[in-house]
Amino acid sequence: MGGHSEAVEPLLGTPGGKQRQQQEKIHQASTLLPFKARLFLLLVSLVVCIFTFQNAIHDLEALGKISNMLASVDELLALVLTLLWVQQSCATPSCSNGGGKKFPSLLNAEIPDLIKGLDSGLFTTVDLVNAYIARINEVNSTLKAVTQINPDALSIAADLDAARAAGDKKGPLHGIPILLKDSIGTFDKMENTAGSYALVGAKVPEDSTVVAKLRKAGAVILGKANMSQWANFRSFNSSNGWSSTGGQTEGAYFPKQDPVGSSSGSGVAISIGLAAASLGTETHGSIIAPAQMNNLVGIKPTVGLTSRHLVVPISERQDTIGPMARTVKDAAYILAAIAGKDSKDNYTSSIPFETLPDYVSACQLGSLSGKRIGIPRNLIPSPLPQSFQYIVSSFNTALGVLREANATIIDDLYLPGQVLMNLGPYQMHVVNAEFISALPRYFASLTSNPANLTDLQSLINWTKSHGHLEHYPDRDVARWEGVLTNTGHGNDSPYFWGNYSAQIYAAGPQGILGALKNHSLDALVIPTWWSATMPAMLGTPVVTVPMGKLPNDGSVVEEKDQRGDLVRWAGNLPFGISFVGEGFSEEKLIGLAYDFEQKTKVRETVKPYVKPKTELRDVVAGRVQKQIAKIAGKWSKDAADGVF
């Protein structure tokens, strides 16, 4: 999309004629000013007009310029009043003005608030993109959450502003900026690296399907978020959120916080308002784990609800793409945009609906009432480490919220599949075999492949020979080498099917599906710390919601990760609660999670230790100041040229 930067400066982005916009804003803003200020501005305008007329009356050729002068006076008055309105009525990040509008605080801004502000003309998409870019630049040197800002983001935003002004809304996310995990392919000027220099310069032939769907819904692809390199599937001695291309991502709730992974940057960025929402990917916990540790909602969809076309793969039976957002409804907006069948990913043919459920409308108060909720206690380790007892205590309190919402709790369920899972490394062999098969297909799909990657062995060789870039051997390739030595075959091998069948039996009839059926349950609920494994093996959905934080009263002993680089355990670190269901039950899970979220409102009680300061108010004020300076500069030039 082309860059017509001049189009990014409508007065407040409202549809209709420019003169009508100015008149409406003059009327709205002037009512907020003291009477003396309004009178002064009126007199100044009158004096300018009289002076201009008296000088021009002696020069008939100048009379034609009077209307232009009056028009610029009108525009200037509108801009001055707008600036005063912004500065006077919005001294705090989130505040109301006389007309009932407000600039939402970007730390907690919800997508419906942003849509309302864009539709009303309170701010433009260009304003929003500029605000997010400024916020990224404020904190990214510390947190390293974002690896790339889309160089076309502002021109795309300008196009969307122009379309809105013309009454042409592209979709439900028109003008909403979204970040992507850096394994999700985009056919634009950005890289698709999975955090590795091995893929720098590699090009996909088109947008990944989820990105194409976001663009169709009107979203702005703002940039790429950092991630655990190769989705935490290279090393046994690396750290969450580290990549060679992006450095070490850190969480915002404690200095040097482990952001968890592998969708690390996607979580950290949204936790402090660096975009409206993000996409992550999950094979085993990579959406829901960083979502909970970054105080977010995360939806791990059923495998097949969202296409994986042109997303760097690990396992075709476990990989899924889903939203990470500040609220359940925001996550539902994103899921609604990216879900659906895709001929380029045959797993999406299993979607059982002709028309997708309305995930946004599923966000209803009272959704918990009458539901039967099972609590699989044997998924929680026993004996429980001291450090986790506070989380279980908070979970038991959360169950009280469910009971008060008129849900029936069937507690202390026993899932025998948990024991079966410990009898053999089924999942390891399944994921290893799938990686061996999936990686060559992805490499073959690239239209540019500077590293000449063909399969896992070629990737191992490249990484070792470029250790100065890939931090090898400080960060090993032992996981990859183990894939070849411990499994050594693809998912077309008979050995694969034995392991996969055992995995499905343990997580299905002897796990999630058996419990749901045998106890007539609507969902299982478990602390997010222990909710990832069975749904990963089975390919079923999970929704995690903020549940609490570790106390920061000195009672929590700080713990480091295995490298000693990050703090994995400390006061103020968030944790979540997960709603788990059968395949394609996202609509029901979203309703349950939304009801719980609205009854608890935990997210805003957990405060980050670092956050950006730039707000929409600042960007709008800055834009208006530039417009005023532009008009003043033109007047000065005209005066110097003797025009007036």
Automatic annotation (TrEMBL):
Pfam families: Amidase
Span list, region Disordered: 1-20
The name this protein goes by in its record: Amidase domain-containing protein
Domain Amidase: 127-589
Residue ranges of the TM segments: none
InterPro entries (alphabetical): Amidase_dom, AS_sf
